[in-house]
User: What shape does this take?
Amino acid sequence: MKQILLLAAVVILVSCGGQQEKAPAVADNPEPVKAEERSEAQFETITFSIFPALGEENISKDVEITADGKFFYRLREVHEVSIKANYTGELDSLDLNEVYNLYSSIDLNHLKQVRYDGFDMAFYSLRITMYNGEVQMKTTLNDDIEKCVRTLLKLIENQNMKKSSNHKFSTAKDVLLPPPGVVYTEAELDSL
Assistant: This one.
């Protein structure tokens, strides 16, 4: 009789020990989970100007994106400083995440190389202000960086914008440099 009870106890222990309580898939903590900090890709502003390639529309475009998601968008006549329109808006969190992803994909070492590949190519002025310094360049771009900048432009152009009278943002003097052969006077730059 003792042997049967001992055998039954062993069977019960083995069968109970083999079952594990599964942890719930959702935590019981009602507080929301915070998104990870963007420690690797930090910037204060991304500012760029695009002087169109030969055969593209005759409008230069200036964009400034701040780290908090505000953006400024300006259209100018090609070869002119006169402003056609100013816009402003704010990126939602998904679009701002996309900006951070695009920013982190840019190899900043490529921005140190000045290239003038052709008179018929788009000419870019790009300035990225970070918390520990800035990178600035004025040139044609390699394909990878040009794709990033064009994607940023498309992202901004797809936003809801409102017309703005504020035309003072950093592309005016800090980034807006004309391509070779075009010279703006200080008065023209001040008018921006």
